[in-house]
Amino acid sequence: MNKSDRNLGMGTDISRRDFLNGCKLAVGASLLPGAVLAQDSYIAAQDVPNYYPPEFTGMRGSHSGSFETAHQARDGASFNGSDNGERYDLVVVGAGISGLSAAHFYQQARGANSKILILENHDDFGGHAKRNEFQIDSNNVIGYGGSMLLEAPGYYPAIAKKLLEDLGIETQRFYRYFDQDFYSSMGLYKGEGTFFDAETFGVDHLAVGDWSDPSILAQAPLSTKARGDLQRLFKDERHYLPEMPASEQSDYLQKMDYRSYLKNHAAMDEGVLDVMQSYARGVWAVAIDALPARIAWSSGYPGFGNLDLGFESYDREGDQEEPSIFHFPDGNASVARLLVRKMIPAVAIGDTMEDIVTSRFDYSQLDEPNSPIKIRLNSTVVSVQHIDDNLSNPVKITYVRDGKTHVIESNQVIMACYNQMIPHLCPEMPRAQKSALANCIRAPLVYTNVLLRNWHSFVNLGIHRAYCPGSYHHRVMLDYPVSLGDYQFSKSPNEPIVAHLTRAPGESGSSARDQFAAGKRDLLVTTFETFERNIRDQLSRLLGPGGFNPAQDIAAITVNRWPHGYAYGYDPDTDQVAFDPDSWPAEKRVWVNGSRRFGNISIASSDSASNAMAEAAIGEAHRAVNDLN
Ligand SMILES: Cc1cc2nc3c(=O)[nH]c(=O)nc-3n(C[C@H](O)[C@H](O)[C@H](O)COP(=O)(O)OP(=O)(O)OC[C@H]3O[C@@H](n4cnc5c(N)ncnc54)[C@H](O)[C@@H]3O)c2cc1C
After folding, report:
1. Confidence bin at 22 (pLDDT 50/70/90)
2. DSSP alpha helix (H) spans, 442-527
3. Looking at the domain assignment, is residue 586 inside a domain?
4. Is pTM, for the whole model, over 0.90?
5. Around Cβ 497, how many Cβ atoms within 10 Å?
6. Domain of 363?
């Protein structure tokens, strides 16, 4: 190992247990990726005592073993298995928020005795609503590996509000649980610090404070012009289309990317464009050179002053009145867990939104023979077809688990997986529907959780989060200060804490769709070791001046990679991605056209709304259940 790796702490004995050594099993030699062979009998991994995937660390999200079979199906492989005799009223493909909600709504509509099976290709349920747990000393530290919070639940559609109510989630309580003043009370800057990296800007430098304040950027590695331009941009006093008739501005900005707007209309220096390049990645998963300027305007990004495009924006008109506080320590994984506990009560004791947080689930209860609802993990669906040409007949579902192909039958099926995959699973669908489904795309993202033994370096630097425009992860932040039920957030810098890092992996310089495709490829070939080296390097350069030592301070790393992340629609005629689906004309709404019921198969998932939010996933689940009536 070279000196630099040694200083970074590569090879340190951190917790990065994957399934094979993370399951704490006494069996060993006969262990397969998703199951064990104990003597001659097959035991599914989820039925092995102490199987508890939230504790697995290392490469999570779409972990190894979860996607390979699906990719074979996509590439035309055929799978032959025998009918194992199982019969259901409903099979749901995918145990994300949408699939779990669909099972819940179906049970509500058809009665508690409905026989429902949910098949999921990952080793845990929840999809993007992913829980990461860490053990350190006697502490259990909880993080979110995907879907982070309920955004503005006061504005949720009635169906989603009702579901939260049914699950016992009273959102007003978060005002008590989320300590909004905590980091400022520690003397830390309330906004983001900015880390200028040497590779992009010439020298490593951390600037802490508001960019519109000249003293904050005085030492930043930017030219005098770039500093002045950045300050002008963030004062945000005017827009740069004064000559254009108001009636033309919206269309014009829709066709132009935000980078070009900043460059050609706001006359921003190249250095400013470098600073801004990753500004939108966390929210939209693309660099600003592929983000329509109109979306930048509606997101409240700077450079538009008082420009009025004639419709309400997300942030400009003050319509987003609720703060971003509706966060469980494991993000929306708590919503998924509440759904599962409601449908399969034997999985965990408790009945409140508070006790779900520290509740340890017994995974062996998920697929119990006597339970009307079952969740079968590590099971990739490779084919969903009616048993014959009569579309009112039952549906045959083929899935692969631990290398073995199984065939089952169900009266009805809800596809709550990735819509783009459905044409490969349901080849009998009409051509136009398959083509629409194929144009539902997803943007890749990475949510990394780094367990730190303490957070003195953050305090010494006066920050709790940082924007890192040129670095591997574009944002770094300390966990949200949320205490719920028996769970307490880290209140002292002496205590361990999760630092949350985000990365949108697409290359700049191409269209949004191409950035997504490149990012997906990148995620599937990048090793955990590469992630780890980049994480250690970035944190040591960002936090080193505050006393951070990556070899000592990092206790565990979990990388949640999501090659199939945010849901978007795509229009091949214009090469446009539906960042603003509501404004698209009906004939271009591939997500609606693709999601129509086909015989006894209906289609849910956030893809069906081209809207990567929990309320959309829930709403589409409800619609898919109604479609089957
Ligand atoms: C990193 C990240 C952060 C996010 N943050 C937020 C947030 O803060 N708030 C918010 O509201 N939304 C957030 N979202 C959006 C999130 O996508 C939705 O809120 C919601 O969780 C999507 O649920 P879903 O069921 O539609 O999709 P998914 O969560 O993707 O679930 C689909 C499931 O189907 C499974 N599947 C796919 N193919 C097969 C197959 N062939 N066989 C079996 N199973 C299959 C998948 O493995 C997956 O588990 C975030 C998304 C990401 C990626």
Report:
1. very low
2. 456-461, 512-525
3. yes
4. yes
5. 25
6. 68-129+330-441+581-627
